[in-house]
Write the structure tokens for this entry.
Amino acid sequence: MKIQAVKGTRDFYPPQMAVRNFIVDGWKAASIRNGFVEYDGPIFEYLQMYQIKSGDEIVEQLFNFEDRGGRHLAIRPEITPTLARMVNQQINALARPIKWFSVPRLCRAERPQKGRLREFFQWNIDIIDVEDVLADAEVVYCSLDYLRSLGLTSKDVVAKISSRRLLAAVLKNIGIPETQLDSLYPILDKKPKIPVGAFVELLEKEIDNPDTVRMIVKLMDVQSVDDIPALVKLNDEEQAALDELTQVFARLKQMGVVDFCRFDMGIVRGLAYYTGMVFEIHDVAGDLRAICGGGRYDNLLSDFGGPKVTATGMGMGDAVLEILLREKGLLTDDSVAVQTLDYFVACVDDALFNRAVELTAKIRQKGYSANLNYKTNTLKKQIKAADSMNASRCIIIGGELKESNQLVVKDMKTGQQELIDADTFLK
Amino acid sequence: MKIQAVKGTRDFYPPQMAVRNFIVDGWKAASIRNGFVEYDGPIFEYLQMYQIKSGDEIVEQLFNFEDRGGRHLAIRPEITPTLARMVNQQINALARPIKWFSVPRLCRAERPQKGRLREFFQWNIDIIDVEDVLADAEVVYCSLDYLRSLGLTSKDVVAKISSRRLLAAVLKNIGIPETQLDSLYPILDKKPKIPVGAFVELLEKEIDNPDTVRMIVKLMDVQSVDDIPALVKLNDEEQAALDELTQVFARLKQMGVVDFCRFDMGIVRGLAYYTGMVFEIHDVAGDLRAICGGGRYDNLLSDFGGPKVTATGMGMGDAVLEILLREKGLLTDDSVAVQTLDYFVACVDDALFNRAVELTAKIRQKGYSANLNYKTNTLKKQIKAADSMNASRCIIIGGELKESNQLVVKDMKTGQQELIDADTFLK
């Protein structure tokens, strides 16, 4: 009986697994470099937990089920709720500030499309209990530090940065009531993805005053923080929000990544839960979905029943990233090795095969990687096998061992061979 | 609203995550040392796939659900069916023999108990298309190579080895019809876990002839392959099965791990699908469940609709292993570091804080790990923070930078301090 993989999931054969490891290992290295420590949670949680942050609509996007105890559970579509639950549970025992990262496997019951799969991996970094925007800047820095380490430059990727706090202040300033903000954000979030006409139409459905609509369109096109005061007369609260964002850029300059960064009022992020700086990193060409996104969400822990403790963070999926790296030639099928091997043991004489088995085990015990051919074969075929495994050296067991107890050690790169006494080898 | 984790799952706070990484990284290193390459599959598959190998009873042990397309899916309880599916799908494109490993997250809807959780990690290694028992021996070797690398000796763990082929041959020899074998295996598998009396009772329910029952009890107690011919007069098929098992032990001797190995006719493995050598590694004291188990399963690929290609492999979970390592003192809360850091940047002067931000980013860009305090504080408190992160060095930014552009670099182990010019540091 032939069975297929489920649509929207991926099989990681060794070449695809090598790519996944290349990405995930890079995420881990960047996290550690930037002083984050790793955590993880279960692959499934109570369904209810995902409704707190994202409302009932999220249920549609979840793989959910009931266990034999009648519990309503769901495979995790994101790890932030788990983070909030875990931090809340131990809030009094954990040393703060908390700088945690994770590289969870996540699942969403979406229609698969380019850069969007039903099962994917996502890098998450979060800094909890640092009120200063230095933490916001550090989250942007860490994301860029990773992308830069892959060879991407400011010609390839751009961090578009804005502030929910500033946006809210300015919108209230031009007459939008506080209660209307949450329904306005998803519309503003659509702006970069749709034509201006369609955007204006959506706004007009939500807002009666054509002047306000025109003002919003203008605001969303502002290219620098400094241009805002010319458009809107700022009160103290708005000025404070603006100063905060200016400070984020100052920090990013000190960190040496400001070339990658740009103010963009159009970065809103769909979710209601952001409270301060928000950002997304995009390919400069703008052909792909966001590479990553995040921001400050100071109410998350308290929304999950915990104390009022501030937080800022970021999530980066593997799918869009892989597409971008391939497009830029920074990841090819040949650039990540499926296997490398220190030694390949080739035996060309049946009578010596036991010695090949012995030697292979001895090499492994010494901590080196080794394979042997499961039977004697022509040297040519075995060298080919060694090559396919990217072996550094091939040890040939044949006449020399019989005659003078010597191993032939062939350097697979240079082709040079040397004879080594079998008893002293790896001693 | 307070929400808990689901019973039987684990939260991996940084200390627990460090332990998980210690185990999983060790599995990966042993796999690579032994010439395996990594693969992985999706976290969920068609429910039906798990019924092929394990029958309908498995459904009870699965977290299964229906997606919006009406597909019956299940979170994977093991990865072997995925392996069979993946290999079958590409059987003509894959270079053989195939030596693959994986460290999947798996879920079973079981009642949680000691060493058995509803969510766990499992190391899997498999060798496909090597008929020779050398591959069986290599699977046992690789498992022991890993355990030995942790510091476990033959006084701690024992590999109990038997053969399904030999067992089947001998059972047929003493009059058990072939059709009865599959219902007999689960009973024999229980033998080490229940008193002799209860074992005999179970056998008597299955077998009418008291002589046959007595013979089986005797056979299950045989301590050496060499003792079998004295109990049963062997025909050619039985002799061949016995020779094969003798050869497994000969290979394990060549590999230098025979001290860890013992013949045990009582190792049967519950599942019907094994066809040759079978083994389990146990703690010598016998207090715990098996640390790992596996064997040869030559029909698996064909059971999943593929060609008749041989296979042998092993699975090792993290739960029993962790209990054993803690019991033996080979894993303690202090033996795995939650975090290590190359540099901690401590600023003791507000006016210099921007320089601390700059420097931290510079260190990270150079590839070293670094953290800074998010605000100036007393030196004592910052040194304490550096200590809690296991920082190797602490850089103190204060008067020396102001006066002579110098950084104080403190070695956290020796306590020694040196002055380094800020411009040449890490140049």
Notes: The mean pLDDT of chain A is 93. Chain A touches chain B through 92 residues (CB under 8 Å). Chain A has two domains: 14-41+76-327, 341-421. The first strand of chain A starts at residue 37 and ends at 38.
